[in-house]
Amino acid sequence: MKIRTCSLDEALAAVADDMSIGLGGVLGRRRPLALCAGLVATGRTGLHAYSFLAGAEIETLVAGGAVASITSGYLDPAGRTGAADRAIEDGRVEWREVSEQLFVGGLRAAAAGLPFWPTLGAVGSDVAERLDLREIRCPYSGRPVLAVPATPLDVTLLHAEAATQHGAVLAPVEREFLDDADVVLARAAKQVIVTVDRIASADEAAGGRRTMLAPFEVAAVVWVPEDGRR
Amino acid sequence: MTSSANARRVCWALARECRPDDVLVVGVATPLAAAAAFVARELLTPDLTVIAGGAVDPPIVDIADFLTDARAIARAAPAVLGQGDLLDLMQRGTITLQFVSPAQVDAAGAVNTSRVRTGSGWRRLPGCLAIPDTAALVGRLVAYRVEGGDRFVVDRVDHVTGLGRDDPVRARWSLSGRGVVAVVTEAGRWDLDHRGSQAGGWTFLDVPPPEFDELLDRVLDPRGVIGLETQSDRAAARLALARSVVS
Hints:
The structure holds 2 protein chains of 2 kinds. Chain A is an alpha/beta fold. Chain A is built from 8 helices and 12 strands.
């Protein structure tokens, strides 16, 4: 079986300028901060960032000049430096506000290989209007729905507690807020890079009950020391 | 510390919005709404379904623990739903009640959490979260704010983050939600269904009963973190929350 563990630099070689990147984690947990710092250190620019609830990882990327746009439903004010706020206000970074149904719908379409996802979320809102979402009709009932375009991502960056050297990513031992959002972000992407607190044994993944991503879904697993976790 | 009288009255008023068959979702960023959900289930509507941070029917907790680590509440819950599950349930119309705290709400029931006009342009707010979705799909929304002043209830919101009570639009799209049915502030409760009635639909809030104070101060919020949603209590509530993390 293929070994997928590698160094941070080797993993980040898959990320090129101007790519669309998914960023996992929420609030103070599971943020791929080491990967984001690595992207800044290697001078990436023009990235289009997608985050369910944007926070410290976005601040890191924006402060380092790596980001062209942020697509999210929230820019977490807790612990921010203000870099993202200033960049959005100055027009250096585009802020694309999406609701949760729209964000997840676009990812689900991409994950399923479909061109769009039907939803009733955000109907009648200026949020849907500003995104220029199109109304379509169900071919069977005639009922109108909004068509959310698929948001295929080039790469998704995650942080998890553990993964095997072959790339089986283990879900948190205890359920965590929005941990399933990491999975849909991963499956909407062509490649997935995961940093971990530790490398798990094959036995820990055996049976698959704790496995959130299968080995073939993961391009690279990077062990990071404690200061790279979140 | 204990929370202010204003926050308590709003919390009690929100709890009274619950019905026994409601499925109520509360998030991790609105401690006052979370406290109201538990108050309702413990004192008023025991059959209420509470989903807090994805945890279904969780045992009652100290709200400070819920805010600092959502796993605290999930740990003892009989079921924990992922965000994808919750979004599907919302779209099917299963979620019947939610308390929302927007920057602005207007008489048409439209809410704004995205951006507000300033003298020179716009000021961006943290973001819409699921408000555009809940406004369309959740059975009833109750908009609330403590000490929000004149900027909270406005003639017309600057930006429609969530659809108002636009019945033709709701009928055309077969939406499961009615939108904002009431607005609660420390000044009173505004029933948007009865805006044409005497007093324009406004009624004063009741003073919470002693059992509410006891539940709040002894179990739900001994550190007063619902004050995070109150201008005058915010600094003290932040300090109390920080101390709870350290301890």
